[in-house]
Amino acid sequence: MLTLRRSRAGFTLVEILVVLVLMGIFAAAMVKLLLRQQRFYNSTNELIQTRQQIRQAAFMLPSDLRGVSRLGGDIAVMTDSSIEIRSVFGTSVVCMVNAAGAWISTVPVQSAKGSAMTNWKLAPAVNDSVAIYDDGASMGVLDDSWRLSRITAVSLVTGDNVTGCPSSSKLVQLADLTASNPSYHLTLTPAPAATTLQGASIRFYRRVHYSLWKWPTDGKWYLAFYDCVFNRVPVCTTPQPIAGPLRPYASPGTTSGLEFTYYDSTGAVTATKTLVARVSVVVRGQGQTNINLTGEAAIPLRDSMRVEVGLRNRN
């Protein structure tokens, strides 16, 4: 009996080799594409991080610089890479004042009605500075001034107490005077003026320093910050990096990571503290790795931002 054998369909060796070659080409193209996408993602992330640090440095400084009084002695140090100023960290309103006793009290931070007459980033402490608005003896404004004093003692007063902020002052209600919402009783030197009124504005100051600083830990340059308080131990805190890394220090007008230029009211560059009317701040950042956004050779990432700050208090 004759048996017919059915032939099996299959792939030849040549066909298999062709498929493997095509798959290899496709896989190589996919890997190349993924690597390019990864490099692009890393470069974009580095670009975003660097620009974010530049913006942080550039936008942080103006908030302190705008309130500086050039004639009031607020500028202590000014160089091309650093500035030391008297910075406002809080405001309040005089509730009670006793010139003979050399003390004032503040309105509590919280109010039952939600209004805020006291606000600060940190509570005032001994040896902080205050500026109290003195209305003067006359009805005019010619004798009005801000009087500077130093805090020599701080105590918290709660309840309806005349050494704190009593309801009789009409600045608070009984509902405001809780144990968790004290008035600050501040002893001052020199004493507040006898012409200081209830409701007078108070500004709390602390000397702060901004500079381009090389961090010993990693050897990179940052915008650094520290504050100083009279008679504190230590007087000045350890510098802390708050933005960066930035480009290394260089001579003015070149590539320094942080550069200050000071101008008077005519637009001329000045080195006299009492003539400063405008401060130009240039921040130059650099990435921590090279970037590749075009698919060509990787290049160092460098960017910059310039901010012009006009001083509001020019007298």
What descriptive keywords fit this protein?
single chain; 315 residues; alpha+beta; Thrombin, subunit H; 2 domains; 6-stranded antiparallel β-barrel; 3-stranded antiparallel beta sheet; 1 helix; elongated
Give a nutshell description of this structure.
By secondary structure, the chain is an alpha+beta fold.
- The helix content is 10-25%
Largest beta sheet: what is the strand line-up?
2-3-7-6-5-8
Question: Residue-averaged pLDDT, rounded?
Answer: 87
Query: From the helix content, strand content and strand pairing, which structural class follows?
Result: alpha+beta
Question: In terms of per-residue confidence, which ranges show pLDDT below 50 for 5 or more consecutive residues?
Answer: none
> How far is the N terminus from the C terminus?
122 Å
Total separate domains? 2
Strand content: 25-35%
Shape: elongated
Q: Main β-sheet: number of strands, strand sense, barrel status?
A: 6 strands, antiparallel, barrel
Order of helical and strand elements: HEEEEEEEEEEEEE
Rounded to an integer in angstroms, the radius of gyration calculated over CA atoms is: 32 Å
Number of helices: 1
Number of strands: 13
Polypeptide structure, described:
The protein is of the alpha+beta class and 315 residues long. It has two domains: 48-81 and 215-310, no CATH class; 87-205, Thrombin, subunit H, CATH 2.40.10. It has one helix and 13 strands. The chain has one helix spanning 13-65; strands spanning 75-78, 82-98, 103-106, 119-120, 129-134, 145-157, 183-189, 201-214, 221-228, 240-246, 258-263, 278-286, 302-310. The strands form two sheets. The chain has a six-stranded antiparallel β-barrel with strand order 2-3-7-6-5-8. A three-stranded antiparallel β-sheet has the order 11-12-13, covered by helices on one side. The radius of gyration is 32 Å and the shape is elongated. The model has no long low-confidence stretch (mean pLDDT 87).
